[in-house]
Amino acid sequence: MLKSLTVTNFALIEQAVVEFDEGLNILTGETGAGKSILIDALSIILGNRASVDSIRTGCDFFRVEAVFDISKLTSIYKIIDEQGITLEDDAVVIVSRRFSRQGKNSILINGCHVTVNTLRQIGEKLVDMHGQHENQALLRPESYLALLDAFDKNIKIELEQYRQLHQKWVEVIKQQEVLAQNSRERAQRIDMLSWQTKEIALAQLKPGEEEEIEQQIPVLSNVEKITTAVNRSYILLEQGTDGIQGIIPALAEVKHELEMIARYDNRIQEQLASISDALYQLEESCTDLRLYGDEIDFDPHKLATLQERMDVIYKLKKKYGTTITEILQYYEKSLAELEDIHNYDQTIAKFSQQQKTLEEKLNFHCERLHTLRMQSSKRLSEQIGKHLTDLGMANATFDIAVISRPDFTIHGTDEVSFLFSANLGEQTKPLYKIASGGELSRIALAIKTVCAYRDAVGIMVFDEIDAGIGGQAGHMIAEKVANVACARQVLCITHLPQIACMADRHVYIKKQIEGERTNTIVTVLTKEEQLLELTRMISGNEITPIALENANQIFKSALIKKEKWKNKAQA
């Protein structure tokens, strides 16, 4: 429920603090006093568009703050939690909005900054605004289906299952459209991938091949230098040059001399061992050098072949990867993509089958939705018709037509029409074509009365729902509004005493001139003040004993009726 509303520098209101009660909160006052200004301020706190035109003349900003008790509105908890808004144990939500002439918009919910979109999402869960503008929603056929679906919780359950399937169906349709649109690109892609994979396959690349070639080319390119160096090294080790003995024979003589010394002095054994090891290693290395030299063979053709191979690898690296491994990975990936593309027909067939299967399931749920909607439409139209009779439209006929169409939508395949006839014997026609403003107000109230106990929104606002209505119809509207207030907190702007007498809390709004400024004053009336205001609404500004007694009788009668309705609602 809305506990309080604080308005600062908004239109004609300089400062107003209004506390509201459960049940029916009535707002009255002379025409132009600012009743709708208060409702406009509430709509601002619910996420409606703010404008600098709403800032009081001479002020730099307006500020509106509302305090809500959401303990009975568990549907709003999820949104608050997702936004990281702190909610205390008392389940109180404080919404504050400040708007400056520079267009700076500051929105706080329990001290947390939020966007207008977030505020609007929360506002829709908090309050159901209903006024002349909302009556016009009854002239829009696209709103009828939502009204019907909200009437039966079984429809909501079935619709949720349908929508999950519908989302999958839409995705399958989109995937098929993408495949069809990309047919030309697909052919071009096939040509390119086929050429690339063929080029890589012809190269017959092997992992590690590049490193091996890079090792061979320098050897083949310098065979003559390598051969000369090997031969000279072998000669120096084994034969010697220019009359100088070879290193190995010389080292053998050294070894022989040390062996002779070792016969007489063991202290030379360490040096002998070192010389012996060096001799054996040099002999082994000399043998390896000879074999290495024998293996080296200058082959110009092999060198050219290896250089050509490196050119091939280099060109492929520029196109497909920095290494042979990356080129081969690209090759495998391209082959897989080619296979997928070549399986296009199978993919299309798979999606087509998925679409067919989903459509069979969608049709099943659509039939169930249609049956539920037909049943609900009958019950809803009957209940609305009874309330229209109570509202002075005894000869009116109200029907709800549910028609199946061939196309799947997010709501199923049904379209809903509200059919109406105000006069006996006249054929029903679409509501938006024939209903007058006064008829729309009463139809809207009848719908709200029926849906009050099913609506998840805890607060309803009726902005002059009695416009253009009086007499007996006014009494009937008063009773319907009061009945709705047994299940929901209701804020209602009215000019009718028949409705005002039903108030659980009466808020009086008047316009007052102070010096050169006009200010709107908002006051919560006591029971005595409420009776005087009711008298004024009945007889005008002249309050006579007879008018006062008449108002008192109406007031007492309203109290008895409200007590009876509340007891019935609680039963």
UniProtKB/TrEMBL annotation:
The record's Pfam families line, in alphabetical order, gives: SMC_N (PF02463)
Keyword Oxidoreductase found: no
Can you give the residue ranges of the RecF/RecN/SMC N-terminal domain? 1-513
Signal peptide range in chain numbering: none
Question: What GO cellular component is one of the record's annotations?
Answer: bacterial nucleoid
Q: Mention one GO biological process in which this protein takes part, according to its record.
A: DNA repair
Q: SUPFAM superfamilies, per this entry?
A: P-loop containing nucleoside triphosphate hydrolases
Query: Would I find Ligase among this entry's keywords?
Result: no
Q: Print the keywords alphabetically.
A: ATP-binding, DNA damage, DNA repair, Nucleotide-binding
What does the sequence similarity comment in the record state about its family? Answer: Belongs to the RecN family.
Function, as annotated: May be involved in recombinational repair of damaged DNA.
Recorded protein name is DNA repair protein RecN
This protein's species is Pelosinus propionicus DSM 13327
